[in-house]
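Exercise 7. Given the encoded structure of a 560-residue chain, write a plausible sequence.
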């Protein structure tokens, strides 16, 4: 499981067509000499104060990505330029002089805190220059740098070099390029010495995709197919046996009679990273479409479908059938509901559970154990598709949907066409719930999903409730209630595009308090959608009366 990155793949490395490296550090630490020695492969007798930008050709390093090196001055009058160059850089090479301990101390007392102050997210390569002048009695690089690296996790690598002796000069910029193209931070937790959760989730998805016979292990044939796909080179039988032997010696559960298990697959990648071979894991991730944030690249999940403001996307019957199958697969106890642990397992191949936070966390009905029914499961997907089709499609792909974007969704026809025909083909309807503070809007949403009003937690984000509603003819539709905060009403009603997704409007008021909104505001909705006006003197009545008298009406009203 290894291989060099091919030229054709190089353009896809972290989306970079070039790497910009800035060299900073105290005066006299050897910054300019380092740059000249790299470019000319010899030590310069007369070094300019600051070198002009130096560009290395694409074929200088194996990844075939050109590097531009920016030398800097640390004089006070040049500080604005130094800051600008740091902010434009992909990586920072921070130098100190091996023969001047004071410059080493300045790393943690000035330079590294200054880079943090600038809120840079770029990797830092710490370089000890003038290695040929270092006192042999000095402690090792590892001993010197360990406490500094412990405090400043942004340091990717530490290395010593000598421009005079041409010792490890190219390596400095190789590591700088590598830190950009194959960064450690997204993959590995240095403190815990383990793969990061998002990396584990991505590798798990890749493992499942490559496990063609779904027996929980990669056979020799499957391992070879994986190798060819990622590295364009097959593995010899002896190499496959060697890989499995290494895993089995270190982690017996990593191999079984069928081949390499998920545990063994993850162990191998952790081993590669620990040995500095991050390019191996990054090559695998990028071959399967992942970017530097370890999520699918935008060009793989972009939405190519154009639609009018009053048109929405809905899941196709093909996707609904896929989701039913996924639901049944992860309903391990066959109780007709996904417990929180089962839902986490379902989304364990996504970067994170998309429903773990608002507005999805508590938007659907659950049983007393917190289990989500199939109707609730499909309702959440309907809500995610309505609000963010691209995110919905990405998560479909993460959980195993093999189809294209165009096969996952259908575009609803324009609302005026439905009104003209006096019928609709839509299966998902959105109801805006208006009302003054304290009128019972949240209680209405809570009751719709079978909860007590007191169950609602305070939230600063949009609040939704989604459920399946049976219509008089026996068909079922998905209704999504969206609570409109009182302070958002006027701005919402003044923008017709904001109103376009609204199929049904419900106005809630406390009958003890007159007035909800002006007739002028109310009439904005009347020409294009159904308006229901409901009174609630006591919010507790919602739970008793809501389902039969309101929600079937709200979903049915638009169809009429």
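Solution.
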């Amino acid at each position: 499981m290894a291989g060099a990155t091919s030229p054709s793949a190089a353009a896809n490395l972290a989306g970079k067509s070039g790497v910009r490296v800035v060299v900073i550090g105290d005066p006299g630490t050897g910054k300019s000499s380092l740059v000249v020695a790299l470019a000319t492969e010899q030590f310069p007798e007369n070094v300019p104060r600051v070198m002009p930008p130096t560009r290395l050709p694409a074929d200088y390093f194996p990844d075939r990505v050109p590097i531009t090196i920016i030398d800097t001055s640390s004089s006070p009058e040049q500080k604005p330029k130094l800051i600008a160059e740091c902010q434009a850089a992909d990586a920072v090479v921070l130098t100190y002089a091996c023969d001047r301990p004071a410059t080493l101390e300045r790393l943690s007392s000035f330079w590294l805190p200054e880079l943090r102050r600038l809120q840079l997210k770029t990797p830092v390569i710490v370089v000890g220059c003038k290695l040929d002048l270092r006192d042999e009695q000095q402690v090792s690089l590892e001993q010197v740098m360990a406490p500094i690296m412990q405090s400043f996790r942004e340091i990717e690598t530490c290395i010593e070099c000598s421009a005079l002796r041409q010792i490890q000069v190219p390596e400095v910029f190789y590591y700088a390029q590598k830190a950009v193209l194959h960064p450690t931070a997204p993959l590995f937790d240095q403190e815990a010495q383990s793969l990061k959760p998002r990396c584990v989730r991505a590798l798990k998805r890749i493992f499942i995709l490559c496990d063609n016979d779904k027996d929980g292990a990669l056979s020799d044939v499957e391992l070879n197919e994986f190798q060819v796909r990622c590295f364009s080179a097959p593995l010899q039988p002896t190499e496959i046996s060697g890989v499995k032997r290494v895993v089995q010696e270190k982690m017996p559960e990593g191999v079984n009679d069928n081949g390499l298990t998920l545990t063994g697959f993850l162990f191998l990648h952790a081993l590669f990273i620990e040995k500095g071979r991050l390019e191996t894991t990054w090559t695998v991730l990028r071959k399967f479409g992942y970017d530097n944030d370890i999520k699918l690249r935008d060009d793989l999940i972009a939405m190519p479908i154009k639609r009018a403001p009053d048109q929405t996307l809905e899941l196709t019957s093909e996707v609904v059938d896929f989701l039913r199958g996924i639901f049944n697969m992860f309903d391990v106890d066959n109780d007709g509901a996904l417990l929180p642990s089962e839902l986490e397992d379902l989304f364990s191949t996504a970067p994170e559970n998309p429903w773990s936070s608002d507005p999805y966390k508590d938007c659907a009905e659950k049983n007393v154990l917190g289990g989500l029914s199939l109707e609730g499961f499909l309702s959440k997907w309907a809500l995610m598709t309505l609000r963010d089709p691209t995110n919905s499609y990405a998560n479909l792909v993460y959980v195993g949907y093999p189809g294209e974007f165009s096969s996952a969704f259908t575009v609803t026809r324009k609302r005026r066409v439905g009104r003209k025909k006096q019928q609709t083909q839509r299966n998902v309807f959105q109801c805006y719930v208006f009302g003054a503070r304290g009128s019972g809007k949240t209680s209405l949403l809570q009751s719709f999903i079978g909860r007590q009003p007191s169950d609602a937690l305070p939230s600063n984000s949009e609040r939704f409730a989604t459920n399946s509603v049976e219509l008089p003819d026996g068909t079922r539709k998905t209704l999504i209630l969206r609570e409109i905060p009182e302070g958002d009403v006027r701005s919402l009603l003044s923008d017709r595009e904001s109103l376009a997704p609204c199929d049904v409007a419900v106005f809630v008021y406390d009958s003890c308090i007159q007035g909800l909104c002006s007739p002028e505001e109310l009439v904005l909705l009347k020409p294009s959608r159904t308006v229901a006006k409901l009174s609630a003197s006591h919010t507790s009545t919602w739970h008793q009366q809501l389902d039969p008298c309101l929600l079937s009406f709200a979903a049915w009203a638009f169809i009429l």
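Remark. The longest strand covers residues 428-435. Students should compare their own answers with the one above.
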